[in-house]
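Q: I'm writing up a methods section and want to include an example of the input and output format. Could you take the sequence below and give the corresponding predicted structure tokens, formatted cleanly so I can copy it straight into the document?
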Amino acid sequence: MVNIAVCGANGKMGKAVVKAVSEAEDMSLVAQIDILNGEFATIKDAKNSVNIDILVDFTQPDSIYENALYCLNNDIKLVIGTTGLTDSQVEELRTLSQKRKVACFIAPNFSTGAVLLMKFAQMAAKYFDNAEIIELHHNQKKDAPSGTAIKTAQMMSENGENFTNGNCPEKEIIKGARGCNSYNNIHIHSVRMPGYMASQEVLFGSDGQILSLRHDSTNRECYMPGVLMAIRHIANSDEFVYGLDKIMN
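A: Here is the clean output for your methods example:
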């Protein structure tokens, strides 16, 4: 039995994780951590009271890095679903995880369908010189672009050097009209609007054809199989993993 703590337990994703862990026969929920009416207010409070094997973090972009540092420095394995970490922060956590031999699993998206979309986009990037990403989320999401869009662009960039091939010289009349210019000139457009939960579309183009890949999440339960998969993967491991795709066969 693996002892699990959930940080951000009273948030929408946190509540779904609490339910999933509670129903898993091989896991024991030992701590619900949340600064707002949580069983424990901080990770430190929980650690001083119960034995934690793995902490699952679904909190806020401005707190996840410090939470991760605390866990890794105190021998608590970590599954991170909070987005907003910079590339340099991810690399620092990788170094610390490997140095201390404490497992850390970071996934920009735990939906198996979204991960498959990323894999398909990476495959398609070999055959198209033009591509853009549109990601759409609810208007309470604080970070932009989404972690999923960033990870998708990273994976696509491994198979192409320039994704604005043949574009004319551009001039934005209103700054930001073309979205952000990410890895290898892949433009990412972020939409924030009530009514959406989490959606992403990747557009590929060449002379005479358009390829559109899209994934939509309509409830938070779709992320739970991936979260449980990550927990089980690191339960007997000390490795650092970035992306659910790394453990999906």
